Amino acid sequence: MSDKVIITCAVTGSIHTPTMSPHLPVTPDQIAEEALAAAEAGAAIVHLHARDPETGRPTPSPEVFMQFLPRIKQGCDAVINISTGGSHVMSLEERLAAAVRAEPEMTSLNMGSMNFNFAPVADRYADWTHEWERDYLRASSNAIFRNTFDDIEQIIRTLGDGFGTRFEFECYDVGHLYNLAHFLDRGLVRPPLFVQTIFGILGGIGADVDHLVHMRRTADKLFGDGYAWSVFAAGRHQMEFCTHGMLMGANVRVGLEDSLYIRRGELATSNAAQVRKIRRIVEEAGRSVATPAEAREMLGLKG
Ligand code: KMH
Ligand code: ZN
User: Fold this and answer.
1) CA–CA separation, 129 vs 242, rounded Å?
2) Residue 202's closest CA among 85, 116, 87, 88?
3) Minimal CA–CA distance to 278: which of 288, 267, 266?
4) What is the pLDDT of residues 196-206, one digit of tens each?
5) Which of 83, 159, 205, 271 to probe ligand 1 with, by most ligand atoms within 8 A of CB?
6) Structural domains of the chain ordered from first start
7) Which Gene Ontology MF annotations are present (predicted)?
8) ipTM score of complex
């Protein structure tokens, strides 16, 4: 097991909405500031989505991305990772547009189609700041987060072959690991694979430590020493799962995309606060936090 732990910070995402937390960054300035502070706190990778500056609604607009990406690039050395998951209502073309414009070192790549239901979260809120929020969240219960084999191949060919982009392979269930192995067998992706295992999304594998062990063992069988393992869990399981995973040798992902909280019942006031917390846990456990340069080396990024 490497002594080094890569911390990814997923800064805003497309699930949480402005009513849920005043600390969720939505404008380009806020996203840039939050990403820079997360990098300063120890995140080697920042995973980014964009939002409409007026309403906070997730947007695929490359113009909006370009209002914060250059600032982050100038202000820190962290690896920029642009989402190709976008949101459940975006087309594949929309989901690819920002990465095609920015040609980043890394993007996410979701490894299978799935239900992706965050409507139950919506039911916890009575009053909404913006009209779009409730309907957007409710629509997820009847939507398919589409990532067919052809879609995945198109993303690999467009970004991987096109720009040398490498991927955060998002695996929400055991089958997604086998899908990734299929692309490895076909020679469309190559080691070291950055395998992000995700727990506790309604539609994916649950946040149960047995599953963490099983995902790890399955990835070991399929990828041997050709992968770097990372863990995140949604909502209240975030810190606990990152801690379990880190003790088992994983890298970790935190950020307000994945959880709005710093501990039970207390909103995180920033992404950096979550990075600092997991960093303390990592260091107390005797491991150390990877710098962006070390992360690039570990993941074979173009730099
Ligand atoms: N919001 C996460 C559950 C992506 O951006 O590609 C999944 C995610 C998807 O990060
Ligand atoms: Zn994301």
Assistant:
1) 32
2) 116
3) 288
4) 999 999 999 99
5) 83
6) 4-115+145-299 (3.20.20.70)
7) 3-keto-5-aminohexanoate cleavage activity; metal ion binding
8) 0.93
